[in-house]
Write a structure and sequence with these properties.
Helix 2 (30-42) packs parallel to helix 5 (90-104). With 105 residues, this protein is mainly alpha-helical. The chain has helices spanning 3-16, 30-42, 66-69, 74-87, 90-104; strands at 23-25, 60-62. It has a two-stranded parallel ribbon. It has one domain (3-104). Helices cover 57% and strands 6% of the residues.
């Protein structure tokens, strides 16, 4: 997660409280997606950004995870995410994001 996005997440958490937020990511790489989840849950593992040492504990999900996909109107999901799903390693992304979320809980 880049430094600007870390700053935005921190500002939103400060303004609205962590109990009112969750993070939805859409990265193409399983490892980068896992790092984004780790960052918003327990802090920046690279110790480089605004979330260094900041444990927000925000729930974070990838747009391709079944529980998120189920909440979106199917035609809207297909129009906006369908092509992406065809080129991504969806299973690897789900596995990585779920594992990181579990490890950070």
């Amino acid at each position: 997660m880049d430094l600007e996005n870390q700053k935005r997440v921190k500002e939103l958490a400060d303004k609205h409280g962590t109990e009112n937020l969750f993070v939805l990511i859409g990265g193409a790489d399983p490892e980068a997606s896992g790092l984004a989840v780790e960052t918003v849950m327990v802090g920046d593992p690279a110790f480089a950004g605004p979330l260094t040492g900041v444990q927000l504990g925000l729930p974070a999900y990838h747009i391709v995870e079944p529980e998120i996909k189920a909440e979106i109107e199917p035609s809207v999901y297909e129009e906006n995410i369908g092509m992406m799903e065809m080129v991504l390693d969806v299973d690897a992304i789900i596995e990585e994001v779920s594992a990181v979320r579990k490890d950070c809980s």
